[in-house]
Amino acid sequence: MKERISTIIGDKESANIWMGTFHSVFARVLRTESDRINYPKNFTIYDTQDSRSVIKDVISELNLDDKVYKPASVQARISGAKNNLISPEEYRRSPDLTNEDIQAQRPMMADIYAAYNRKCYRAGAMDFDDLLFKTNELLRDFPDVLHYYQHKFQFILVDEYQDTNFSQYLIIKQLAALRENICVVGDDAQSIYAFRGANIQNILNFRRDYPEFAMYKLEQNYRSTKTIVNAANSIISKNKDQIKKTVWTDNEKGDYITLQRSLSDNDEGRYVANDIFETRMTRQAAFKDFAILYRTNAQSRSFEEALRKLNMPYRIYGGQSFYQRKEIKDLLAYFRLSANHNDDESLKRIINYPARGIGKTTVEKLIIASAKFDVPIWEVIQQPNTYPSELPSATMRKVMDFCTMIKSFTSQIETHNAFDLGQHIAQSSGLLKELHTDKTPEGVARYDNIQEILNGMKEFSDDVDPDNPEAVRTMTDFMIDIALLTDADKDDGDNDKISMMTVHAAKGLEFNYVYIVGLEENLFPSQMALHSREELEEERRLFYVALTRAKQRAVLSYAITRYRWGQLSQCEPSRFIEEIDQEYINVAAMVLPKQEPARSWNNERSNFFKGATSTAPRGNKPLTRLNTATQDDNQEVEEIAEGMEVEHARFGKGKVLKVEGKLPNTKATVYFPSAGQKELLVKFAKLKVL
DNA sequence: TGGAATGATGTTTTT
DNA sequence: CATCATTCCA
User: Fold this and answer.
1) What local confidence, expressed as pLDDT, does residue A610 receive?
2) I need a surface site. Which of A35, A93, A179, A426 has the fewest CB within 10 A?
3) How does pLDDT run across A644-670, given as a tens digit for each residue?
4) In this structure, are residues A249 and A226 in contact, taking their beta carbons and an 8 Å threshold?
5) Distance between CA atoms of A474 and A461, rounded to whole angstroms?
6) pLDDT (tens digit, 9 = 90+) per residue, A383-404?
């Protein structure tokens, strides 16, 4: 969007536009105005993990049972309240909410909410929902601030308006109140965020709030072929809740939608990879023209494997984002704590990582004292006389040393650039050394990730701020809102890659060739969404979004067996497949090249296949039987012997040094040049004899 | 205190 | 199946 606007109005002008997600734009506002709401300028933003950890602490401090008060659902409940601008006090006073909680046997919810907020405040931290909640408070309680931003933002455009929640709605309403120069774009058929409080009512309110509105219906689709547009229409017409409209296109009819049935999740991966490979050749397409869309992040694995085997570049969006990886969060925790000593979550994370002799008993004592006196852990350490924690003096010394180190980082924040300080912290905290000693492939990857973020800081530091070319680009600048960054913000230069992401993440994007995979009951639509018509209709809209990402060709795919929760389960094709007008669909005969000898099928699995194929469901065209190299699945334990050369899926080639233990639990000691010596249980290790 | 061994548990979807 | 949490022992 930024690029498109730049090409129209030029880089200079477009640089002045505030553009971003609600969270990032208003995090920026809050940083500027933090003193108004009694937050430190460099407040920390707690991501979902951080905030769940705080909730866990609250639950245990209130002596509640985390089987009853499940942290995840408590978190969802608090989030829901915040998105509707309900404070803990209002929550407590609301008969409806209180009754719901009593019904659900969770009467203490309001207390958890209050304690959670208190803890976040004490830590100088905001969670994602706070960014919007506090913005609302700021604009509500400080007329001069409101006035300032009303003049600053004279024109407001909100895209994907159907996905805004009440909190966001009210921010916009306040800001637009003065001039009413506001334009919103939305499509009720693409509303897919009801689960996080998005409210379609906001679109309807618009007419009421701005009676002089003008409405433009955008019913012509410029993106997709007739086949895709019509198929999508046929899907969405199954929904009861919808604003009627007729989407049409002038584009040509185009390809049929392909329906592909696979025998397993792995076959599905291989099929899609092969199809991309072929399409790329026959249509002269680039990798970046392809997208694989799935319902849940966990589904990416089989596609990754298949694409890797064919040497095709891909990029996964979302999921475990780079910034959420453990090693990255560890390093960032040093940064965060250096910037904000009250950030208890970061402190707990790193006070003994890398290990420096501060064990859990010690941390436990500190936490108890911090709760008792209602002050951040840092204060407990700094003022042992005011807040006695009863640590033995030797331990106290270690804890003090840790704080001294952090303080030395703090003192350099404003004077050093982000990279220099980042490098220094990574080194003198011992983090780099700790990761460097880990020679497992995962360990090496972690070390590389740290290097990568340091590189990013280097780039950032060398970059000149056009507004202020003299200024040192500090760590504070770098750290701003890093919790809000997603993988989509990362750019590694080579962008000709196949995209893989959830359907949610794909909204607003488009690709020539789209594969919608895992179209199975209980997966898409999700098992969680089968309880009510409303939920199912949201899943259907999600499918609509997926299908309309495609410009030229869409491939729908499902597998009849799939590993879920580590178990093989049978799957039924998704109801959405049948809901498409069948005239647009072409059922593919599965064609896969002969497999290279398989390395990994075990007996249980291949037997299951034999049973499953005979009961092929429904009237699909006959399938070319997949040749899944069953010849190799009798690879029994006795085949592994000392001296053999073997290959492991992850560690690569290696030599068997020793075999011990009796049959099904035979253990082999294998030396891998790339990964060192490993002890592996033969029945799990899937070793391939070379 | 710290590491290894064992056991529980969880999967929607995102900022 | 992975990851985390808990437990156990040096």
Assistant:
1) 27
2) A35
3) 777 765 556 777 776 665 444 456 667
4) yes
5) 7
6) 989 998 888 888 888 899 999 9
The H-assigned helical ranges of A211-323 are 226-236, 265-283, 300-309
Rg, chain A, Cα only: 28
Nucleotide nearest residue A391, measured CA to C1': B1
Residue A376 has pLDDT above 60, yes or no: yes
Burial class (CB in 10 A: 0-12, 13-18, 19+), A596: exposed
Q: Evaluate whether A15 touches A2 at the Cβ level (below 8 Å).
A: no
Cβ-contact A91, A113 below 8 angstroms: yes
Residue A634, pLDDT above cutoff 50: no
Q: A429 in helix, strand or coil?
A: coil
> What does the alpha-carbon distance between residue A487 and residue A317 come to, in Å, rounded to a whole number?
6
Q: What element of type H or E holds A292?
A: strand A290-294
Beta strand pairing call for A498-502 and A290-294: parallel
Hits for CB < 7 Å against strand B across A residues 289-318: 295-298, 318
pLDDT for position A486: 66
Looking across all nucleic acid strands, the nucleotide with the smallest C1' to CA distance from residue A320 is B14
Tokens 């011992």 correspond to what residue?
Answer: A430
Closest CA to A574 of A235, A278, A318: A235
Average pLDDT over residues A610-622: 29
Cα–Cα separations (whole angstroms), residue A68 to A71, A211, A309, A343, A463: 9, 47, 45, 28, 51
Alpha helices in A463-619 (DSSP H): 475-479, 503-506, 533-547, 575-579, 603-614
A529 CB and strand B closer than 7 A:
yes
Which of residues 456-515 of A have CB within 7 Å of strand B?
Answer: 484, 486, 488, 501-502, 504-505
Question: Worst-scoring range by mean pLDDT, A382-386, A569-573, A594-598?
Answer: A594-598
Mean pLDDT across the stretch A50-56? 89
Indicate if CB(A606) is under 7 A from strand B: no
Nucleotide lying nearest to A566, CA to C1' measure: C1
Q: In whole angstroms, what is the distance from residue A591 CA to residue A258 CA?
A: 13
Of the ranges A150-164, A593-607, A610-624, A625-639, which is most confident? A150-164
B15 C1' to A616 CA distance, Å: 42
* DSSP labels, A65-93: -TTTS-HHHHHHHHHHHHHTT--HHHHHH
DSSP state of A257: E
